Amino acid sequence: MKKVFFIFFLYFSIQSYSQNYTPAKLDSITSIYKNKGEYEKVFQYNIAALRYYKEHDNPEGSALANINIANAFSTFDEHQKSLHYLDEARKQLKHISNNGLNARLCNEIARNYAFLGLYNQSNIQLNQSIKYLKHAPDTKENKNSLFFVYLWKWSNFEDLKLPDSINLMRKKGLKTFPDEPKIYVRIAEQFLSQKQQLDSVEYYLNKASLLAVKNKSSLHTYGAIATRRGNLYTLKKEYTKALTYYQESLPIYLKINRGADIINTYKKIYETYLALHDIPKANEYLTKYTQLNDSVQSGERKAVASVINNLAIEQEKERNDLYAIISAIAGIAAVSLLAVFMIRKRNNNKNRGRDQLLEKQKKIIDEKIIETDKLKKKVDTSINDLSKMATSNNPFFISKFKEVYPEFHERLILQYPELTNHDIKFIAYLRLNLTNKEIGQCGNVTVRAVETKKYRLKKKLELPADVDLGAWVLEL
User: Fold this and answer.
1) Residue 381 has what pLDDT?
2) What residues form the membrane-spanning segments (predicted)?
């Protein structure tokens, strides 16, 4: 009964607060809850505020509340739900001009993409965020957004193994945010991953600890520092010390429900107990790691499929828009040429000045036709390059195919994970609309062998007998 009364009281308290708070105050209170790891209050507070802002037709407040809720879901590895709320925020931001909030929207989308392993797509969003921030006012919130951009691009570049870009982000981060503890945690992490300059790791973690206390940083910052100390002592093979720090970070991650960090810490504790030859404890944490990891990966697969599908729709729309532009230019050019021809025929005997005007018009039209041809060539170049790579049996064919058709490749392996690399390569030939003879040349086999492969692949994909495999691939 007391619990019911408390929830009832809390709900109406939050409802009352949200009516009095501006979006800036909403953001401030949310940050306080997040830093304490009180994510239940983050949800309750922002959901109540979102309801209030919708009732009072406040798109700025609604967008901010949606972004805050999305951030919390992302923290819990609920990426599909997070992206849903971000999509709602995007709809609200169409009605207002707020560069700061648009930057935060891009950052949260990037955060989800990075967690899902879509690092290039994440960087695209972060670059868009920088564009917004260039036109945003110089506020604390917008500085935090820029810090976020540097930190996540740095992390993405590490996963993409781009050392020059990593060093660039490191220099920008140190120059712009010298008092941010997570900058020094990231530097320590960089040395740890390279297994070098371990004395420097200790120095940067100590600096991060001092700044965390000075800045009254979030709980996650302390967890991140403890985890890196554990990693440091693991490299030094001082496993008892390493275990102490992992066990210090785990309660923090459990309190703020950081799924990815909890999984990683379970794994670290399991490996440490294994190194200490404590098999019962090692098995205990291996079980925890396996159960949580399987659950999170299942959710991530669904979220990745959703993201890839949305990206595919966007890319297809862009491609269709490009072809529409090309067709429109070609149509205008054709009509203009016809008009010029008719005018010239009708006014053939008129003065030279008018002829010169017509010549200028014809020149402009010719230039438009050249531009049209260039656009067509730009669209077709990648596909032609792919066809040449296929027929010449180039070993980098599949890598190039993934770049040109990322959405197709991802959709294929998600829907049919049992396909072999050879199957995927064969399907790629079909996607390029190659004939049986051309496919045979690619693999140095007969046309009969190509037909046999098609038959076997249809059975593997469980397609009806009357379905044409080539047409099915083009429609996938």
Assistant:
1) 59
2) 322-343
Question: Against a cut of 0.70, is the pTM above it?
Answer: no
* CA angle (195, 189, 117) in 5-degree steps: 110
Residue 57 lies in a domain: yes
Alpha carbon distance 464, 468 (integer Å) = 9
Q: How far from chain centre, in Å, is Cα 89? A: 17
Domain assignment of residue 335, yes or no: no
- On whether residue 362 sits in a domain, the answer given is no
Number of domains in the chain: 1
Direct distance between the N- and C-terminal alpha carbons of the chain, in angstroms, rounded to an integer: 55
Sign of the CA dihedral with 172 first, then 142, 255, and 305 last: negative
Helices (DSSP H) in 347-444: which residue ranges? Answer: 352-391, 397-404, 406-415, 421-431, 436-443
In a domain, 18, yes or no: yes
Distance CA 90, CA 70 (A): 12
CA distance 321 to 316: 8
Q: Cα Rg for the chain, rounded, in angstroms? A: 29
Q: Which segments of the chain have a pLDDT < 70?
A: 1-21, 294-383
